[in-house]
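Our example copied in:
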Amino acid sequence: MEGNTLRPLILIVEPDPNITKEIKRILEFNESEVITAKNGKEALKILSELKKYPNLIISDIMMPEMDGYNFFNAISNSPTFSHIPFIFISTLDSPEDIRLGKMLGVDDYLTIPINEEDLVASIFGKLKRSKTINIIDDKISEIYLSNEIETGLIPEGFEDLMVLIEVNWDDVVGPKLVEYFPKDIKLNISIEKISDQLYDAITSIYGQGYITQAEGLLISVKNFNFMAYVFFDSYPDKTYRGGFKDFMIAFIAPKITYFQSLRIKKIFIELSTLYKKKKKWDKEEFWNKLASIITSSSFI
């Protein structure tokens, strides 16, 4: 379920009625639907009863019953709500507070009193990115269905299956699977086809040759029992079209939370640095690092 795509639905979680009123005024002026809650506990109850889910959540940190940190933790670990963009607002404005909020993985951290221009820019920037990811999800599902591939990619009994994929762009053949780990996986579709279609779906949105800087996306593939964190990067190479060699690293698992995707991204940045320096890397070692993130229950 999703919010109205014409008028985004935004949930404000804020104990101060004056702050709620001001943010609500700003959002409704910018043609958004608004629902409100006074704390994280009330917000979770409201979310469980909604017929359509919000496109974005704005939450204070200091709240009674359930504060913003614990509310964000609950949202991030929910398969249903973890992809909703999340913005903290707070009177906690020290560099340490802001750094903690961003380290936890919120999409943005704005201080009170709210700057209207900053709030509007942040919200609609996050909504645009979320819409792009949804388009990619739909594109991937469309590709699978058009090829009449059986749904349920992760076989029954393989709920813990995790796969690391490495793909290069080739000017002649297009996306080319270089390596994957573990090698003994058994799926109802080849890993090569998965990698090609992940690559094609994303470049169909961004455009081939335009991913010249690192870009990471957490994707939940609709109609299939897996998620993927996909990381694109490139490095200068005059032998390739446009003067850059593009590559993609992806990690597939039945479930990846937003928190986990942030930790995966750090590992992929490390891996990307080795890749661009043309250094060898141990696939099993990196797979073990990634798998430990998925099996970990730590908050940060």
